[in-house]
Amino acid sequence: MASTHAPNSSAFIRFCLILLVSTDAAAITAHHQQHFKQAPKFYNSPTCATIVPEPTDTCSDEAVHVAMTLDITYLRGSMAAIFSVLQHSSCPENVVFHFVTAASRASSSLLLNRTLSNSFPYLNFQIYPFNDLQVAGLISTSIRSALDCPLNYARNYLANLLPSCVRKIVYLDSDLVLVDDIAKLAATPLGIDNNDTVLAAPEYCNANFSAYFTPSFWSNPSLSLTFAGRRPCYFNTGVMVIDLQRWRAGDYTRKIEEWMELQKRMRIYELGSLPPFLLVFAGNIGPVDHRWNQHGLGGDNFRGLCRDLHPGPVSLLHWSGKGKPWARLDANRPCPLDALWAPYDLLQTPFALEA
Ligand SMILES: *[C@@H]1O[C@H](CO)[C@@H](O)[C@H](O)[C@H]1NC(C)=O
Ligand SMILES: *[C@@H]1O[C@H](CO)[C@@H](O)[C@H](O)[C@H]1NC(C)=O
Ligand SMILES: *[C@@H]1O[C@H](CO)[C@@H](O)[C@H](O)[C@H]1NC(C)=O
Predict the structure, then answer these.
(1) Total-model pTM
(2) Which atom from ligand 2 is nearest to the alpha carbon of 196?
(3) Residue at 33 is within a domain
(4) How far does the signal peptide extend, from start to end residue (predicted)?
(5) CATH of the domain at 16
(6) So what's the pLDDT on residue 61?
């Protein structure tokens, strides 16, 4: 039985939460020592659409809407990601950011707001508190504990968190940088020949899809038949273009939660928030060129070995996996490609402050 191999998941969740709560104070203290430089103001090129000023621009269909989670642990990554989006955008003033923070850490939301406003005084953004404690009860443990923290699951709740006037969103993880105009990614057609396309992302059909689910999943026809009539392929949930209107209409949040509930009763997968997305969407997603998610640069989940780029052009570099470029750079043990992240690092080092 799968459950005999599974660790006691509720104990692990409690561990994760205790870790979150107890590190909050420490993280905030550490954060006080983290100073970020102010990014320059980025201007629209003359051909950009003019967006009606506040407050209606939060909803503009002309804007590129970007959703990201924001927490103190990954703040340095998020700041670099935001900086990279603005720097390569031809209409940077038309990008609206929607940040999701953990509601259980209200004090850090204030800090995050202040940090963002200081480094990006002209940024058009909103902050949405996400009820992380509620989703914590739905999470079963994975092979990498960092994947188990509730904010990782916030991407499943964007349709509820964001105002209903936001129709389409580009979701981005915090461990990536763009080197191309996000408007091109946001313009990904969703459902030209298929009205039902809710989500678009680069697909990887060479990956061994079976490996994402347990033998108990595949040997149970009532479960594995969920893929009947589809050609499911792996996709990475760190970069997605989502039609929020279709998501809401199809109640996909609930569909993903149903698989998470099943996972708590019997172990059907090993990784964190990714497999429920595969269960609901794999084989039915809209195409996005691979250049928009050169993933895996963080290295493998076990040892964090350096990885190379996949062949082909690059519009987005994604340090998914165990290692993060800022941690490796700080430790003076960077992977070769970490040099491509460094120019977007806004952290003000104490040395630079003295200089
Ligand atoms: C951030 O803080 C400012 C100043 O306190 C406040 O006016 C603003 O509404 C906050 N923004 C968000 C998105 O919470
Ligand atoms: C798309 O939706 C419209 C309106 O609901 C419908 O008339 C049309 O046949 C659909 N097209 C396809 C390809 O499903
Ligand atoms: C794919 O993964 C499954 C489960 O881990 C394994 O049994 C199978 O041999 C793999 N197939 C290939 C082609 O590697």
Answers:
(1) 0.87
(2) 14
(3) yes
(4) 1-27
(5) 3.90.550.10
(6) 82
